[in-house]
Structures are given as structure tokens and as C-alpha cells.
Amino acid sequence: MAKSKQTTPMMQQYQEVKDQYPDAFLFYRIGDFYELFNEDAVKGAQLLELTLTQRSRKSDNPIPMCGVPHQSVQSYVDTLVDKGYKVAICEQMEDPKTAKGMVDRDVIQLVTPGTQTDANAENAKVNNYLTAVTYSESNNAYGFSYIDLSTGELKVSLLKNAEAVLNEVINLNSKEVVVDESIDSDLIDQLKGIGVLISHENQISEIDSDEIISTIDDPTLLDSLKMLLSYISDTQKRSLSHIQPAVQYEPSSFLKIDHNSQYNLGLTKNIRTGKKSGTLLWIVDDTKTAMGGRKLKQWLERPLIDRKEIEQRQSLVETLLDNYYERSELADNLIKVYDLERLAGRISFGGVNGRDLVQLETSLEQIPKIKHVLNDLDTPEFDEIYQKLDDVNDVYELIKAAIISEPPISVTDGGLIRDGYSEQLDQYRDAMKNGKQWLADMEAKERQITGIHNLKIGYNRVFGYYIEVSKGNLSKLDDSRYERLQTLTNAERFSTPELKEKESIILEAEEKSKSLEYEIFTRVRDQIKKQIPRIQKLASGISRLDVLQSFATISEKYQFIKPQFNDGHDLNVKAGRHPVVERVMGAQSYVPNDVVMHPSVSELLITGPNMSGKSTYMRQLALIVILAQMGCFVPAESADMPIFDQIFTRIGAADDLISGKSTFMVEMREANEALKHATDNSLILFDEIGRGTSTYDGMALAQAIIEYIHDNIGAKTLFSTHYHELTDLDHELKHLKNVHVGAVEKNGNLVFLHKIMDGPADRSYGINVAKLAGLPDQLLKRANTVLEKLEDADQQKNNHDDKVQKNEAQVKHPTLPQKTESETSVDLSDGEQMALFKVDEPENHSQLSKNESKIIKDLESTDLMSKTPIQIMNLVYKWKTKLEN
Predict the structure, then answer these.
(1) Which of 525, 24, 11, 15 lies closest to 235, judged by CA?
(2) Where is the binding site for ATP, in residues?
(3) What confidence score (pLDDT) does residue 650 get?
(4) CATH class assigned to 285-392+531-557
(5) Could you say which protein family the record assigns here (predicted)?
(6) DSSP result, 801-812
(7) Fold topology of 121-252
(8) Which of 317, 381, 575, 811 could pair with 637 as two cysteines, CB 3.0-4.6 Å apart?
(9) What is the architecture of the domain spanning 9-111?
């Protein structure tokens, strides 16, 4: 950034600070405003919709500037940070009234997208994660750590490759990633491509973090943790006593759902709107607290794979479901519990006010009531949670005794400490109260003495207390008693020796009272700060309890049932439902469907018209699996299933414009993820694989993928397709089964049954679907005409194939005339042509090449009548390639 040519002491000071934060907007405090200068001002005025003015406008080089009032600075900071920028808050470090020369200023905090802690109501149930990544050549692995600075949650993991790093960053929705020189530019570019702010921290600051990192001993993880904590220390410049000890996690300990699958399934963000509404999270979220909402989202994004843990959650949900009155009472109490995690954070930061402490008091007041409900349940399942519910009664009693029930927002203007808590404060307040009564008495006396009925005693910060008399009544005053202070348009203001004496007493009491109140408040805050670990432990128990009651409530509301788990590979879901679609449509309109896949069936090949419900059926199973492994009940009449380790989906069509990848490339990459990483305990959902390329390429790829999964992986797979030729695969693949979505024609109109039935669909009904979409009648008639011609051509091809097969049968007949090779052209349904070779075996095989001899033997041993058209085409293509070679 170009430096200003102005050399005033203030601008020199500004530039010195700005040089330390070149990539941030510098909010520079001057009096009651925060000012922005130079390029910060130009860009800030545009982003914040402020008026751009100039400093030293009469000089040759006026300085662009704009400003915001200090009282409302937070909203402007939030706006910039939400847009992905950093903001450095430069504060006056001394009182301008007592400062000698330039007021000392310094940056007290650097606010960044990953360190933003003031969440609004809309984001109360959303974590804001800051992530740090380092790479170790010796381990050939990445150290990955992340923190929510507002709650103190800190976790670390060792990741094997850049792909895993990218997946975790996307799943966590990290807005900022801290890196050092160990991270290569390719990974940084990928992170930037998904909209992540990259911050660099190459020199680790010495910080007191032994207690935080004591649970971690891996050097790669420690490097990442230290870099993260150093960055936080450098940017926040304040107490961070609420940061919890680091917890190491292993992604493979949870049901793996990569970011593409999370997106395709609409778990937390609606595919169309990007909002929560219309997602699985929207369905299951009946939490009453902000921290419960965040815990629910974490459980949803990381379902369990440990059967014992899942069944423990199920048991707790079942107990709450069976005890309606206790559950209702529990919910009523939870509603009154504020965000304990973020309150603990604000207490640690020193930014807490009186109203925050009252929220903490109100929250702690509910804990004995919640524990009483758990006692009434009288079940050992809740013992672990009960033990976490320390009511922190000493903190509750402290706040109740010290802070009034409705304190002001400001902690420096007084009026927030209860009477009776401090004897000294009570004395000051008595002096103020008596002084103000004296002022009222004096006003009445002066009115009586002067006969001026509108005479009044007032106060302002410049002149202190004054007597105000309208100009029409000035003649009634005894000038010897009154000292003139100020002349107004319609009045004069005066003082008297007696008024000055009382003013001194009152103002001294007010000033000392405010100072003492702030001192008392900080002592109370510091006492509570020592109990932050207890408050955080309590928050953990409350949030867990909140999620469990949410599961029970929605299970009752939407008639979910408790799923069963087996150690084999049986999957039997009876009358399963898509919870989101059902809620939107209404239970009466939704058609439930079974999903039955015993060990003898690992793949379902699904055919049927567009819009008939194939994708819904596939997503339905995935959502049921996720709900079950979260520990929640599921939308079905019954469900018996294995524990899945991973879910892979390829549903929908979308370009990746950032990376320059087409729809088909995205499709192939997502398919490849499943083929590389899936196991026989995984669930794969592939919707219309191959439709992004030519018919035969797509069909060939689709068949090859089905066969590969069948022969090499064995994962439970739902594969929907419009390639009806693939339905013949059930004769060759013993673990594949054809099913289709039912549809019928009534009076020329297509009616979807939305019911999954055995066997393949008889046709695609594409033109019928186009009619439902409202395409013009003329267009539809033309489409029918073209379809009839294509079907006739296909029939002619089939007839021709019969003749070819008869000719092939004659190859072995000794009386037939010998032919070395003849080529027959076959018209295909899409207008392409492929050559079929009829070959008679010559008497002398030595005249043929090895390839030609091999092809003859293949042809002799191939039973063409048992092959499907696509299999024959594949064979012919292979033979032709060999001949060309």
C-alpha cells in the first residue's frame, strides 16, 4: 500500500501501525470514532457504504478517510470479516486528557474469519472453526488441528494426504486456514479455490500452552497445535483461559461421508438454497439450546461406527421417548439455559458484561431442576450425564448476590451492582441520593425566593450543575448571589457557592461509585473465570442431553422407530421413508418403500422414468443409515441393518467451475472416490452414471463400474440408470438384482406410482415425462415420430442380427463356400454404425496371423445367442481392435 505523503505526527503513528498489518483494515481510534485512511478508506467506504471524505483537503495530497462511531463498530467489523477480510482494532491506550503529546495507540485485537467470536442469533447453532495445517516429510502426513475460539473446543488429527485435508476443511466449513512453509502451493491453491482465507505463521511464538497440549505427544500434531495457538495469541492479544485441552480424533472412527456426499445428500445445507431448511439437520433439530444445536450438527456430520456407542445413545433416546412428561419438563428447563460455552469464552476474553452474567445465573438456576428430572427417570442409562451436571452453585450464588437482575450493557457507567453487596458502594450511593434530594430541595427553595416558577437545576458534563433562568425572568434575580456560567438563546445559566459545594460532593460520590462498581464487577468476573472448566464440563453434559431429547421428540413427532443392527450384511428396511420429502409432502402423500439386500444381493439396479422417485429412494436409504448410526430412530416400520463404514454418492449433475471440470469429469472423480476407498461394509449410491458422455461410452463405463463393484468391492450399492441394456446383467452377476419404480399410462397420461417393484422397467417414458413438464404438443408429436423411426431401425437391426447369427452358425458347416472375411454394416439406434465380421475358417490356418487365428477360435467358442446386444458390440470392438493392430 502506498504511504501517505502527510508527515503529521498522527499520520506517522498511523502508518507505523498499518505497516504491521498490511493485509488488514486498520480501524484507528480517534476520540469517539474509528477512522480508516488511504486505500483502507477507499475500499472500506465501498464495502461498508460509508461517506468517503478527505483529511487535509486543502493540501496537495489530501488523504482519503472515512469513519464509524465507536459504539457501533462491531457491526462494521462483522461485515468486513463476513466478507473474508481481516480487521485490526487500534485503540487509544491512554486517556487523551492526560496524555502528553501524541496519544499512545496500539492494536488490541486482529479479527479474522476464523477468530470471529461474536455470533448472531442466526449462527448461534453453528461453530466457527479456525484450522491449522503442517506437513511432516518424515511421517509423510499432515498435522491437522482446529479450534472454535468462541467455545474453546480444540481437536487434532493426523491426515494421510492432501485430499483428506481438503475434505476435513470443507466438512468443518473452516473459513480460515493457517499454514507454514511446509505446505505446498497446490494444496494452498485448492484451499483458496473453495473460498478459504489462507494465513501464514512461520515463526512460532512462545506461549503458555503446556496444559492445552499435554494430551498430545505426536511431533507432527504438536507442530500443528503450536502453530495454531501461536497464531491465536498473536491475533487476539487477550486471555484465552477457556481453551480446552486438545483432543485427538481419527476420522476413520466415524462413518465417513466425504464433502461431496454430504452435499449430494443435503445433510446440513439445502442443495438449491444453501440454507438449513429442507435438510436432514432441519428435520432432526428440536434442540432448545445453542450448544445443543452445535452438538447435533457435529453428530450428524460424524455418525458413529461403534455398535456399543450407537446402542447406548438409542437406549437414552428410548427412555426419553417412553417418558413424555419428564421429557416435556426437561425441554421446558433447557429453553432457559443460555449458551454456556460461549459465555465461558466471553468471560475468558474479558468482554463479558452484566447481562451476560445474569444469563449465566439464569442458566445455572435450571441445573438442579434438570437433575431432578433425571432422578425421576430413575434409570442407570443417564448416570454418566448426571455426573457431568455440576450445578456450579458457588458461581450462581455469587452472581445472584452481586449483580442486579436487569443490569445496563455498559460495565463502566455504574448501576449494575446490588445494594448491600459493598458497604463502601452503599455509602457513595447514599451520598448521591442525599445530594440529589438536596438539589431538589434547593430548586424548590430558589423558586420560592425568586418567584420564578420555571427555574430549574440541571447538569451537563462541561459546566456541571447549574441554575437555569429564562431571559424574561432575569430581572428577578439578585445578581450578587449568582455567578453567570453560560448564555443560551432563551435563557441564562448560573451557579452559586452553595451549589458548587454540593456539586463537588455529588460528583465525587458518582465518580468513585462508578469506579468502585467496575472494580467489584471485575473481581466477580475473575472469580467466575477460575470456574470455567466446571462450566464447560456442565455445558458438555447439557448439550448431549439436549440432542438426545431432540431425537426423542422428533422420533415421536414423525413416527420414527428404533433400528436394529446385525453383525452380517443383511439390510432389511420395511416401509422406509425419506424424512425431508415426507415432511414437505405430508405423511399421507408419501409412498414408503422397502430396501431388502441380503448377503446374496449386494447391488440393486434401479430403472424407471425420470421424476418417478429413483433418487429419492436412494437418498432415503442413506439418510436412514445416517440417522441410525447417529443413535437416532429412523423413518420406517422396521429396520435391520449392518454398521456401515462409509457412504459414497454420485447424485445430480454439476460442473466444478472453479477447478475447470465438466459435469462428466466431476461424475468420474466422485465415482473414482468410491471405487478407490469403498469396502464391503460401505454404501454406494450411483445415480445415472455415464450420462454425461456419448451413449456407448456411458453405457460401457456404467457396466464396467457395476461389474467392478460386484467383483472387487462387494459394497451395498444402489445404481440407477436409463440404460435398459444393463438390466441383462442380472443373468451374469449373481449378487445383482433388478428393481424399478412403477409407472402406468392412463388415458395417454403418465402416472407415477412411486413404488419400487422387482424386475426392470419396460420402458423409459421420457416423452411422457416431457409432457408432464409442459413441452409444446407439436414438439411432443415430432418426438413420438422420431421415436417410432428409431424403434423400427432397432427392430431391423435385431432382424439382421438373427441373419448374422445364422451365418455364424454355418462357419462350421463343411459344405459351405469358403470366405476369408466379409463385413456387414449394422444400423444402431443412435445413427452410429459398427462393423460385424463374419469369418469362415480357412483350410490352411498357417495363412492367418496369430490375431486372426485367435479371433476365429473366440468366435467358434462364443455362444452369440446367449449374449446381449451390448455384449456382442463389446466383443466386436475387441476383435476389430486386434485386427487393426
Answers:
(1) 24
(2) 608-615
(3) 86
(4) mainly alpha
(5) Belongs to the DNA mismatch repair MutS family.
(6) HHHHHHHHHGGG
(7) Nucleotidyltransferase; domain 5 (3.30.420)
(8) 575
(9) 3-Layer(aba) Sandwich (3.40)
What 3-state DSSP class applies to 461? coil
Q: Name the residue among 711, 697, 696 with its Cα closest to residue 668.
A: 697
DSSP assignments along 68-118, one per residue: EEGGGHHHHHHHHHHTT-EEEEEEE-S-TTT--SSPPEEEEEEE-TTT---
pLDDT at 480: 77
Q: What region does 228 belong to: left with phi over 0, alpha with psi -120 to 50, or beta?
A: alpha
Sign of the alpha-carbon torsion through 412, 418, 419, 421 = negative
Q: Compute the distance between CA of residue 634 and CA of residue 318 in angstroms, rounded to an integer.
A: 12
Q: How many helices (H) and strands (E) does the chain have?
A: 27, 29
Beta strands in 375-534 (DSSP E): 456-460, 464-470, 483-487, 491-495
Are 145 and 166 in contact, with CB atoms under 8 Å apart? no
Please enumerate in sequence order all residues whose Cβ is within 8 A of that of 450, keeping only pairs 6 or more positions apart, or say none: 469, 473, 476, 477, 478
CATH architecture of 564-772: 3-Layer(aba) Sandwich (3.40)
Q: What pLDDT shows up at residue 667?
A: 81
Give dist(CA 391, CA 538) in Å, integer.
7
CB 780 within 8 A of CB 767: yes
| Neighbouring residues of 165: CB distance < 8 A, sequence distance ≥ 6 | 133, 142, 144, 159, 187
Instruction: Decide if 270 contacts 277 (C-beta within 8 A).
Output: yes
pLDDT, tens only, 671-711:
888 999 999 999 999 988 877 777 788 888 889 999 999 99
- Per-residue pLDDT at 769: 66
pLDDT, tens digit, for every residue of 242-293?
A: 999 999 999 999 999 999 899 989 999 988 888 899 999 999 999 999 999 9
Ramachandran quadrant class, 629 (left: phi over 0; alpha: psi -120 to 50; beta: rest): alpha
Residues annotated within the binding site are 608-615
- The span from the CA of 723 to the CA of 656, in Å, is 25
**Binned average pLDDT, 10 residues per bin, the chain of 885 residues:** 62 94 95 94 95 81 91 92 95 84 92 88 88 94 96 95 94 94 93 92 77 90 94 89 94 93 92 89 97 97 96 96 95 97 92 94 97 90 89 96 94 92 91 87 91 92 90 84 89 91 86 93 96 96 97 97 94 95 82 92 88 87 98 97 95 48 75 92 90 79 92 95 88 93 71 82 67 74 75 65 56 42 35 35 52 72 63 71 70
CATH (one of 3.30.1330.10, 3.40.190.10, 2.60.40.10, 1.10.1420.10) for 423-525: 1.10.1420.10
Query: What whole-number distance in Å separates Cα of residue 29 and Cα of residue 47?
Result: 20
Q: Which residues, in sequence order, are CB contacts of 16 under 8 Å at separation 6+?
A: none
pLDDT digits (tens, 9 = 90+) for 49-85: 999 998 877 677 889 999 999 988 999 999 999 999 9
Q: Which pLDDT score, from 0 to 100, does residue 754 have?
A: 79
Closest CA to 29 of 57, 51, 10: 10
**Which ranges in 739-815 belong to alpha helices (H)?**
766-772, 777-809
Give Cβ neighbours of residue 181 (< 8 Å, ≥ 6 apart).
202
Q: How far is it, in rounded angstroms, from Cα 481 to Cα 459?
A: 19
How far is it, in rounded angstroms, from Cα 153 to Cα 228?
A: 13
Are 570 and 600 a contacting pair, CB within 8 Å?
Answer: no
**CA pair distance 622, 598, nearest whole angstrom:** 17
- Nearest CA to 283 out of 591, 725, 693, 584 is that of 584
DSSP 634: B
The tally of CA atoms less than 13 A away on the side-chain side of residue 185 is 0
Tens-digit pLDDT profile for residues 720-742? 988 888 999 999 999 999 999 88
Report whether 304 contacts 629 (CB < 8 A).
yes
Q: Where are the domains of the chain?
A: 9-111, 121-252, 285-392+531-557, 423-525, 564-772, 798-884
Taking only Cα atoms into account, the Rg of the chain, rounded to an integer number of angstroms, comes to: 38
